[in-house]
Amino acid sequence: MDDLDTALGGDLRTVVELASLAPSVHNTQPWRFTWDGSALTVHEDPERSLPVLDPTGRERRISCGSAVLMARLAFAELGYSVATELHPWSAADPYRLATLRVTGRAEPSAEDAALAEAIPRRTTDRDPFDARPLPAELLAALRAAAEQEGASLHVLGDESTSATVELQVLLSHADDSQRADPAYLEELARWRRDREAEGIPARALPSVPAELRGSSWRLRDFASGETSAPAGGHEPPIPEHPMVVVLMTGGDGPDDWLVAGQALGRLLLRAAVDFVAAQPLTQVLEVPVLRARMRHVLGGVGHPQMLLRLGYGHAGPTSRRRPPEQTVRVVPPGA
Ligand SMILES: Cc1cc2nc3c(=O)[nH]c(=O)nc-3n(C[C@H](O)[C@H](O)[C@H](O)COP(=O)(O)O)c2cc1C
Fold it and tell me: What is the count of structural domains for the chain?
């Protein structure tokens, strides 16, 4: 039987390393993998849950979906053709998400190669973006990326409209209510990790504290209670006008969350190909009553899954990942 280093002549390790570079809520990396000699199965790891922020596991599943997308592209880049089966949610095996069966060798398409090449460059950028607007062609490509995976993209733009102002208010309400919840703060603090291969390290936090930012979109304060703004004498904040988009799905069940995760992965990589970075602003999606209001503001059709700000950033230091030894189990064929 294979082990991690002999599987696919060593390529399995690379696939899992690239899949693990997917974004995940609080960098929880809520996935695990099994390899049976010809197929990689991606599972959710319920041990890596956020019961306060994400009691339904929606964001956990989105995170895993984006790891599935990265794994698909990693296989393609390494010259494998793969048949991907998404497993519909079942009570009997609720955490089995997708099986990627290697069916042969194939040259990657130019698009897959470009997206896969961007996997190590994609990081969440929490700093202010440059004022440069995003080209219309890129927005069209991001829309197409979401649609290719079965989701859709609602572009709010970078201007103040009544809908954006309403969403900014909802986001601030959500953030206020989370900050007032000791259980939320305690959970967040547990995932602030500087020396471990998981969680959010100080180096991935914004260099400018949230209260000194000219952002109308409330940013999650990962350093809650750890830092305070320097006293007085600072420059007035520079107004920020990021491009803000909402990733939507038609339904809102576990299978839709898996779709949303793959769409998120593809659109973030498509942005990274053009050196455009993103930061999720998901507090408003974590307070059910405010998420329902958000859906209404967006027209009531479809379900919002991710709110993201996008722009030209300054690729900075990144968060770490657990090594494949901790996430992959080699099992007998067909297991
Ligand atoms: C479902 C989901 C929700 C997230 N929500 C936020 C958020 O509200 N604010 C934020 O700054 N980052 C958010 N992130 C980004 C993660 O914190 C980030 O992906 C993780 O720390 C790994 O870092 P990386 O994206 O730089 O690789 C979210 C990511 C996912 C997948």
Answer: 2
